[in-house]
């Protein structure tokens, strides 16, 4: 059986070659990253081009573009503005291009070095962002975009993917532990109640940008954005700072977070498993091991 979403064979060099052939004026470029879902390059020190590496990522890119256009100009800090969405000869899916958002990414390890003032400032900035994002009017989206992405269907699919992609790769004792833990999480998640809102979906440190004064200057990577449980974004904050000191600081500008923390902790448990599944989809044994070790606490 051929897995849906298998990575296509495309290098950053070939991507740039195709863009140049399509008359994009790229005089210099650097690779920002090749992930399991996309290639990202910085062109001419001012434009970022992203290209999906498989069909599922291409579908997510379309959703991301819709979300970015809906929130453009209404959030307290800049987000990518997809000014270029183009079919390029020789490429299977569309390319997205946007002016680079200023700032430096924050490494998760840096959070622990923040003093109280910096942590408070960061929490307030993130709280304002979440408060505005989660209150985005549904009227800004098409009806098809309003489906609940954190419904029971998502979690059943997670269980199905785990059985298909991981069961044959691990020892039976490991699979039994994984399966029991996942079933308990899904049982909890199915009992959760929430009103779907627009949430980022990958709200962690690698997607926060900061200026030289350590103020939040932008938020990037809306590839997982969609309507669902806002507690998923809170789970991202907990993953960024497991001490939950950051969550405490968010409360000042986003008091609604208090009603989400219990749900967020449940979602947080699944992140490592999702990491392992991404590794399985790209046959990355190290990513699989890291994800499973984290998920099972080994």
How would you explain this protein's 3D organization?
It is a single chain. The chain is built from ten helices and ten strands. It is an alpha+beta fold and 298 residues long. The chain has two domains: 12-99, Phosphorylase Kinase, domain 1 (2-Layer Sandwich); 104-296, Aminoglycoside phosphotransferase (APH), C-terminal lobe (Aminoglycoside 3'-phosphotransferase, Chain: A, domain 2, Alpha-Beta Complex), CATH 3.90.1200. The strands form three sheets. A five-stranded antiparallel beta sheet has the order 1-2-3-5-4. The radius of gyration is 19 Å and the shape is globular. Mean pLDDT is 91; it is low at 1-8.
Ends distance: 31 Å
Oligomer: single chain
At the fourth CATH level, what is the homologous superfamily of the largest domain?
Answer: Aminoglycoside phosphotransferase (APH), C-terminal lobe
Estimate nothing, just give the exact number of structural domains. Answer: 2
Count of discrete alpha- or pi-helical segments spanning 4 or more residues: 10
Beta-strand percent range: 5-15%
CATH top level assignment of the largest domain: Alpha Beta
- Number-wise, the strands total 10
Described by strand count, sense and barrel closure, the largest sheet is: 5 strands, antiparallel
CATH topology of the largest domain: Aminoglycoside 3'-phosphotransferase, Chain: A, domain 2
| Major sheet strand order | 1-2-3-5-4
CATH architecture of the largest domain: Alpha-Beta Complex
Radius of gyration: 19 Å
């Amino acid at each position: 059986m051929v897995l849906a979403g298998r990575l296509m064979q495309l290098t950053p060099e070939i991507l740039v070659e195709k863009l140049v052939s399509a008359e994009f004026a790229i005089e210099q470029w650097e690779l920002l990253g090749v992930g399991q879902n996309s290639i990202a390059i910085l062109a001419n020190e001012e434009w970022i081009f992203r290209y999906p590496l498989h069909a599922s990522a291409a579908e997510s890119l379309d959703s991301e573009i819709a979300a970015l256009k809906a929130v453009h100009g209404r959030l307290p800090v800049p987000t990518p503005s997809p000014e270029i969405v183009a079919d390029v000869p020789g490429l299977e899916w569309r390319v997205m291009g946007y002016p680079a958002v200023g700032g430096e990414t924050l490494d998760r390890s840096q959070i622990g070095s923040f003093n109280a003032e910096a942590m408070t400032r960061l929490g307030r900035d993130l709280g304002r962002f979440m408060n505005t994002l989660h209150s985005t009017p549904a009227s800004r989206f098409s009806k098809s975009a309003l489906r609940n992405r954190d419904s029971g269907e998502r979690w059943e699919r997670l269980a199905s993917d785990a059985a298909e992609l991981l069961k044959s790769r691990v020892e039976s004792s490991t699979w039994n532990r994984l399966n029991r833990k996942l079933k308990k999480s899904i049982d909890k998640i199915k009992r959760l109640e929430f009103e779907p809102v627009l949430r980022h979906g990958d709200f962690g440190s690698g997607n926060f940008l900061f200026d030289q004064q350590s103020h939040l200057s932008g938020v990037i990577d809306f590839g997982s954005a969609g309507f669902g449980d806002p507690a998923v974004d809170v789970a991202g904050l907990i993953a960024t700072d497991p001490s939950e000191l950051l969550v405490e600081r968010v409360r000042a500008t986003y008091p609604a977070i208090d009603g989400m923390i219990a749900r967020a902790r449940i979602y947080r448990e699944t992140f490592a498993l999702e990491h392992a599944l991404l590794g399985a989809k790209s046959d990355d044994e190290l990513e699989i091991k890291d994800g499973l070790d984290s998920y099972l606490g080994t």
